[in-house]
From TrEMBL:
Pfam families hit by this protein: YceG
Region annotation Disordered: where it falls in the sequence: 34-68
Gene3D superfamilies linked to this entry: Endolytic murein transglycosylase (3.30.1490.480)
InterPro entries reported for this sequence: MLTG-like
Domain of life of the source: Bacteria
Name of the protein described by the UniProt record: Endolytic transglycosylase MltG
Organism: Desulfitobacterium metallireducens DSM 15288
């Protein structure tokens, strides 16, 4: 059987198209619902609270003119005696960060391993690793 040039080009195009569709599908599945559609341009300051039953709070940010922007904040709990490695593991498992090694590298570079304190923190989904660290050490 002789393979024509058109056949091979069509086959190659089909393989490339299916690989792109698979990649897009895989990427859309890795985005957690807590980070989908999060606006990372507006960040709020965390407030440390005593542990509570509420897992989600809604707060109003700035009112500019007649526009009211609402951001969803979720609680993140640092248990007593948790190490930086345990905190990184919890942040990754709850979807706050994608890579715990990047988190730990930044924490160690800034020598912040001992600055984390047990408590409940309000975090905004979609924050960078550096902003997440800053909220947790305040």
């Amino acid at each position: 059987m002789k393979l024509s040039r058109q056949y091979l080009l069509g086959l190659g195009s089909g393989l490339i198209l299916s690989a792109l569709i698979t990649l897009l599908f895989t990427l859309s599945m890795t985005v957690s619902p807590s980070t989908a559609g999060a606006d990372t341009t507006e960040l709020t300051t965390p407030s440390v609270q005593q542990p509570s039953d509420s897992a989600q709070k809604t707060s109003s940010s700035e009112k500019s003119g007649s526009e009211n922007i609402t951001q969803i904040q979720k609680n993140f709990v640092i248990p007593p005696g948790a190490s930086a490695d345990k905190i990184a593991q919890l942040l990754q498992s709850e979807g706050w960060i994608q890579n715990k090694d990047d988190f730990l590298t930044l924490v160690k570079a800034k020598k912040l391993e001992k600055r984390f304190k047990a408590g409940t923190y309000e975090l905004t989904p979609g924050l960078s690793i550096e902003n997440t660290i800053n909220q947790l050490i305040q």
